[in-house]
Design brief:
EC number: 3.2.1.25
CATH superfamily of the largest domain: Galactose-binding domain-like
Signal peptide: 1-23
Keywords: Glycosidase, Hydrolase, Signal
CATH class of the largest domain: Mainly Beta
CATH topology of the largest domain: Jelly Rolls
Number of domains: 3
Helix content: 10-25%
Protein name: beta-mannosidase
Distance between the termini: 60 Å
GO molecular function: beta-mannosidase activity
Number of strands: 26
Radius of gyration: 27 Å
Largest sheet: 6 strands, antiparallel
């Protein structure tokens, strides 16, 4: 039996190792505090809480009247024709800066955006004139970005500045540069050329709403510092398996009463491994219906960005099958995808988790049926078959709940 002091020393060492691993990855949400909104080509300044657009912030501060009242859609158009800057300062600790990788995550930059970190240069006159200190030049309001910024940060105070240029102006410039004219919807108050920008089309105006062209920051904005492998995305694909499929038998699944078939779920995981990171394993945990994995824990080592696929088999039961509305219930199964340090596993048990994401999955089969129409061989069908049942779409849709996307997100 070990002396008491050795047991205590081992316990202390284990606690320190786990504590260090738990603090391995660091995240700082840049949306928690207020930002300063300023009109680059004017004199307006206002505090703003993100996510928000410049027009939305001005309305909240009573600097402009509601754009939904009378003809204020046109009276407030100068807001969308101005250049706006969102900026704030933040503190970076020594612990964060000591990590191998430090990334800036940004999303929902709506739309023509320059991002500067600790820059001192003047703001360009237009989106096309990007300065040397611009670390991101985005013209897509629908995507997210991950930017390595470790070399741009300093321990202590830092500053981030996001400048948004008039989107309608850039849409018109792109349309003029195109070799031929592209039609777009036109109506009272509407703005043209929505098909030349990766921006919500209804911002240019629609038959049900005004053309406000809001410019703002609608998605995440945070810093991530890490020295272990991290998950940056998980996509789930389903493959229907019949009861006699050999993959069900070899997976270790036992027959469950009432199971008519099974699904092979492929978790396609985006992983970033920093230089010198310890080896990690990819794991998937799910509901009781999840049988043994069709593949063992995937080992991940070596620096770089990669796509790793992990497959599991799930028994499909009458009470866990997803149906369209009107045909049945919509149950969703929870799966947790995680990365764990390989060297913390003991006797085959899962290691210490350093990164994880959850995905909710509805088990279903979907077939697009295109078959010759009886007595009309030159024509074919076009409908969907869900879980073996023919389903025909209804003619309805949902428009945005509010003219400002940040408000729509809160209302959802």
């Amino acid at each position: 039996m070990q002396p008491r002091w050795r047991q205590l020393l081992f316990a202390l060492a284990s606690w320190l190792m786990l504590s260090l691993a738990r603090s391995e990855n660091f995240a700082y949400d840049l949306l928690t505090d207020q930002w300063l909104l300023s009109q680059v080509d004017g004199s307006i300044e206002s505090a703003v809480q993100l996510p928000a657009s410049s027009l939305e912030a001005l309305e909240k501060q009573d600097l402009v009247q509601s754009s939904l009242y009378r003809d204020n859609e046109l009276q407030n158009r100068w807001v969308s024709e101005s250049t706006w800057r969102f900026q704030r300062s933040f503190h970076v600790s020594e612990d964060a800066q000591d990590h191998t990788n430090v990334d800036l995550l940004l999303g929902g930059l709506d739309t023509m955006a320059h991002v500067v970190l600790n820059g001192q240069g003047p703001i360009p006159a237009s989106f096309q004139d990007a300065g040397d200190d611009v670390i991101l030049r985005s013209q897509n309001g629908h995507r997210r970005y991950r930017i390595p910024v470790k070399d741009l940060l300093q321990v202590g105070d830092n500053n981030i500045s996001i400048t948004l240029f008039p989107a309608a102006e850039e849409a018109a410039r792109a349309a003029d540069a195109y070799p031929y004219k592209v039609p777009s919807m036109q109506g009272p108050g509407m703005l043209p050329h929505y098909n030349f920008l990766r921006k919500t089309a209804s911002d240019f105006g629609w038959d049900w709403g005004p053309a406000l062209m809001p410019a703002g920051i609608l998605g995440p904005a945070r810093l991530e510092a890490y020295s272990t492998a991290i998950l940056t995305g998980v996509d789930v694909r389903q493959q229907h398996l019949e009861p006699d499929d050999e993959r069900i038998k070899t997976s270790g699944c036992s027959n469950i009463a009432g199971a008519s078939s099974a699904m092979m779920l492929s978790f396609e995981c985006e992983v970033i491994v920093p230089e010198g990171a310890p080896e990690s394993t990819l794991q998937v945990a799910g509901p009781p219906e999840m049988c043994s994995s069709s593949s063992k824990a995937v080992s991940i080592a070596g620096p770089g960005q990669r796509l790793v696929t992990y497959k599991v088999i799930v028994q499909q039961l009458p009470n866990n099958t997803w149906w369209p509305r009107g045909y049945g219930d919509q149950p969703l199964l929870d799966f947790v995808v995680s990365l764990a340090l390989a060297d913390t596993a003991d006797n085959g048990e899962r290691g210490l988790k350093t990164s994880q994401m959850m995905r909710r999955v509805g088990l279903k089969t979907v077939e697009l049926v295109r078959q010759p129409v009886q007595h009309q061989p030159d024509k074919e069908t076009f409908f969907f078959r869900i879980n073996g049942v023919d389903v025909y779409a209804k003619g309805t849709n949902l428009i945005p709940m509010d003219v400002f996307q940040s408000v729509s997100a809160m209302r959802r």
